[in-house]
Amino acid sequence: MTLRVPHWTPRAPLQRLSLGWLATAGVEVAVLRLDLLDPLICGNKWFKLLPHLAAAEAAGADGLISLGGAHSNHLHALAAAGQRFAFPTVGLLRGEPQDTPTTDDLQAMGMHLHWLGYGGYRARHQAGFWLPWQDRYSHLHPVAEGGAGLPAAQACAAIVEMAQGQLAPLGWADYQGWWLAAGTGTTLAGLVLAEAGRHPVHGALAVPPGQGVESTVINLLAEAGQATGGYRLLDASRGGFARLDADLAAFIDEAQAESGLPLEPVYTAKALLALRREVEAGYFARGTRLLFLHTGGLQGRRAHAGRMQELAVP
Ligand SMILES: Cc1ncc(COP(=O)(O)O)c(C=O)c1O
């Protein structure tokens, strides 16, 4: 049965963030809680999936096939969408077969999994990678890792509208910029495109600099015909993607306890810690108002629970 794009328009609240180091610096932050968009199809994922669903419908496909790691937030949201809206999903996974809380969920939500090994997964950008999968699953529409691409970035304009529509109840007439985690840079590029220079976008890199985010953003803006600019990228990776150290673990515990905002160590906590560094260094003038994008990913916290506990031991 051909997939139909569901008429589903979930909303996420914009909430003030209360933290001592923000108050000390006179910087105000409101968080767009995309983690609260939906219990399962949450974070930036729904926005990035929508154009792929539209492309699948246009192609007459029944469902989607995509790629990710054993803790992938993207595959998790895709599997949840497949279950919720009754379309088939297939996940191509990095590495050797393993059971993680995420892969257990993927299977429970009806996603069919194939493990590609590490070498097989590295080949995902090569021409011809998709051919055997398209032969095997001719009724499924392929989606690049993480749901990347210009249509996905452009779909993130809805995030900007969602936040702007909630400024008045906060008593904010305007804001001076966005702050968010960047993994591939797709969401960041989407905000930059939507803002078109009206408000700067600060991207906290979850991966070390030089691993492709810089060029992805430049290429997406160029493909959209927009001049580069209106954003900056800063290293928030703490030396490696998904690397969790004692300072980060302590920061997560403190920030969550003080603000009530749930964080995960790979994206949102690193982004918030990088913001603290900049705020404490005086980067933002007193009176600055920022929108922090909570990009979700809380399902991935389960993979780090043991390490968090280890680091918490004095
Ligand atoms: C929870 C979470 N936040 C942020 C990101 C980064 O988004 P993007 O890849 O669009 O930069 C991702 C995925 O990569 C993610 O899963």
From TrEMBL:
PANTHER family: 1-AMINOCYCLOPROPANE-1-CARBOXYLATE DEAMINASE-RELATED
Keyword Nucleotidyltransferase found: no
Family statement: Belongs to the ACC deaminase/D-cysteine desulfhydrase family.
Family matches, as InterPro entries: ACCD_DCysDesulf, TrpB-like_PALP_sf
Positions of post-translational N6-(pyridoxal phosphate)lysine modification: 45
MF annotations from Gene Ontology: D-cysteine desulfhydrase activity
Protein name: 1-aminocyclopropane-1-carboxylate deaminase
Domain of life (superkingdom): Bacteria
